[in-house]
From TrEMBL:
The chain crosses the membrane at residues 6-24, 45-64, 76-97, 124-153, 159-179, 186-207, 227-248, 269-297, 317-339, 374-394, 406-426, 433-453, 476-500, 539-556, 562-582. Pfam families: SSF. It is a multi-pass membrane protein. This is Na+/solute symporter.
Length: 593
């Protein structure tokens, strides 16, 4: 077994980083004056902060663990799918995303209420909230178990520590703090990962990018080594469909477009996503170290014998091999950042759901903005505690190999929940009950598909005789269930349009107003929206200057020249961006005078 341990400089970097992150909530504490500020940044964020937050939210810690394991085995397949999915999502979001902001809602479930009415909204509340809490806990547990196995950090301590950081930050700063944290930490994550990528591909065992095709195993290029072509094509198609729906689902990644200042800023967010995910594309490039690990560490079991899935340590193993002392601590912070961003869904956003879609409906309909803010902060803490309990409880069950089972269950539930929301903002001639009934029919069809599925049935459908291997069995079950749920749910949703004309005049008028709102651009003066551009340039500029300066101090750590240059690169870029933002703030202040 190869020992991977953090040195003292790494722990110093991590400690200072945690102090910085904990302070973000305090920085934005006074920016929140009502529920809109706390839960969606007042719908007033500029494209660069909202865009980075959206991109970071799509890159969870799963990208460095489970996804790294998949990439270690299959090479360029998954990065290629991400790239194609981004290329599909960009034109779709260019058309749809401005409508999200123009819905003029604080939470995504308020949009469900405006489109489908109270019954559908409440069904989503009691399905989406528990699911996001559960997956927040499971995701947290996955990261905690990963670090416990790889770095000898106690699992429960990691769970409690990470959740406390996210909760405290959200408690004081709300969505402003979350987005600001995503921006600064997103820069850190991308830049640090690029350092790992550079050193990984230039290892003697690899010989540079141009030599990858000579040293990588055949399975990294010939994807049919793990699955027959028909299974592979179906898996790619279904995965692209799912990723596209997730990107435009208001209860998923689509939520991030509610926080932008207006439709023009939203389209700039989409351009930013196109550059970072499609044109460069960073999300796919990030997986190169895991790909190279297949050459450097062909037997990951010998590297991480205590990990349940040793290949999940592929990225981390390459980082330990290539990074100078102190820089590994920064990378750990970046992986924490990816996990923290996804946990926001289960803390700040769930608090928003509770306040706006439960508390206002049933407890205090006349609640003031200050009261909603107080209740939101209370339930931010409550949901943080629930996530800790879920993660610790799941930690005791992790030996039962439940992850794949829950993944299938999540697919069975997620697809029916997404379809009415996605289709409902494109097509309006369905009755109020079309959403909740589609969810119900989709859940039933998913359960039926799960019971109906067998390897023998799959082979008959595919007209194949050779038995399915282990990878194909998992993929085919996922494909089978997803296709059935998708076809049944979409068919049912459009079938309900037959009854649209029987809807009440009040409902038809409500839907008409909803679609008119989506088509009407935001008018900042008429809608009395705060002018907070200067505040964003000032605070984010200051944060980047402080954080970038802190990283630049890493050049003093006793490393070789190449190691010191790593800190110069990461810290210098963040500091330069901070300088640019702060100068923009000073210029805007001067122009106003």
């Amino acid at each position: 077994m190869i020992e991977f341990t953090l040195v003292g400089w790494d722990w110093i970097v991590i400690a200072l980083y945690l102090v910085f992150i904990m302070g973000i909530g305090q920085v934005f504490k006074n920016v929140n004056s009502d529920a809109s500020d706390f839960f969606r940044g007042g719908g007033n964020m500029l494209w660069w902060i909202a865009g980075m937050s959206a991109i970071v939210a799509s890159i969870s810690a799963w990208s460095f663990t489970a996804a790294a394991a998949k990439v270690y085995q299959t090479g360029f397949l998954l990065p290629g799918i991400w790239w194609i999915a981004g290329g599909i999502a960009v034109p779709v979001l260019w058309f749809i995303a401005p409508r999200f902001r123009q819905m003029r809602v604080i939470t995504s479930l308020e949009a469900v209420y405006k489109r489908f009415g109270l019954a559908s909204e409440q069904m989503y509340v009691y399905l989406v909230m528990p699911m996001s809490l559960f997956w927040g806990g499971v995701g947290l547990n996955a990261v905690a178990v990963f670090f416990a196995s790889a770095l000898s950090i106690d699992t429960n301590t990691t769970i409690i520590g990470m959740t406390t950081i996210v909760t405290v930050m959200s408690l004081f700063g709300g969505q402003w703090a979350v987005a600001a944290s995503d921006f600064v930490q997103g820069l850190l994550m991308f830049l640090t990962v690029l350092v790992v990528v550079y050193f990984s591909v230039n290892l003697p065992e690899i010989g540079g990018v141009s030599n990858l095709h000579n040293v990588l195993p055949d399975r990294h290029f010939d994807f049919t080594e793990n699955a027959r072509p028909v299974v592979l094509l179906l898996w790619v198609a279904v995965t692209l469909l799912t990723l596209t729906l997730i990107s435009i689902d208001l209860n998923g990644e689509g939520f991030k477009y509610l926080v932008a200042k207006d439709g023009k800023q939203v389209r700039k967010m989409v351009i930013m996503m196109a550059v970072i995910i499609v044109i460069i594309p960073l999300k796919s490039i990030m997986q190169l170290p895991a790909i190279c690990a297949a050459v450097v560490y062909p037997d990951m079991t010998a590297v991480f014998p205590d990990m349940k899935v040793p290949a999940e340590g592929a990225f981390l193993a390459m980082a330990f091999k290539t990074l100078p002392q102190g820089m590994m601590g920064l990378l750990i912070c970046g992986i924490f950042a990816a996990a923290m961003s996804s946990m926001d869904t289960a803390v700040n956003r769930n608090a928003g759901y509770f306040v706006r879609n439960v508390y206002l409906k049933y407890v205090n309909k006349d609640s003031s903005g200050e009261q909603q803010l107080l209740v939101g902060r209370i339930f931010t803490v409550v949901f943080g505690l629930i996530i800790i309990l879920i993660a610790i409880a799941f930690n005791k069950l992790r030996e039962m190999n439940l992850f794949d089972i829950f993944q299938v269950l999540n697919g069975m539930i997620l697809m029916p929940l997404m379809i009415p929301v996605v289709l409902g903002i494109l097509y309006k001639k369905t009755p109020s009950w079309s959403a909740w009934s589609t969810v119900l029919v989709g859940l039933i069809s998913g359960a039926f598909a799960k019971m109906l599925y067998s390897d023998e049935l799959a082979l008959k459908i595919l007209s194949e005789t050779a038995p399915l291997n282990a990878a194909e069995q998992a993929d085919i079950q996922y494909i089978f269930i997803t296709i059935i749920v998708f076809v049944v749910s979409v068919s049912w949703f459009f079938m309900t349009s037959i009854f649209y004309k029987k809807s009440s005049p009040e409902f038809i008028q409500q839907v008409d107003v909803f679609f008119e709102d989506m088509a009407r651009p935001i008018d900042h003066d008429l809608e009395d929206i705060k002018h907070q551009d200067g505040m964003q340039y000032k605070m984010l500029g200051f944060m980047c200057l402080v954080f970038g300066g802190f990283i630049l101090l890493g050049m003093l750590i006793p490393n070789e020249l190449s190691g010191r240059l790593c800190f110069l690169f990461v810290g210098g870029v963040i500091f330069s961006i901070g300088l640019m933002l702060y100068r923009k703030y000073l210029k805007s202040t001067k122009d106003e005078v």
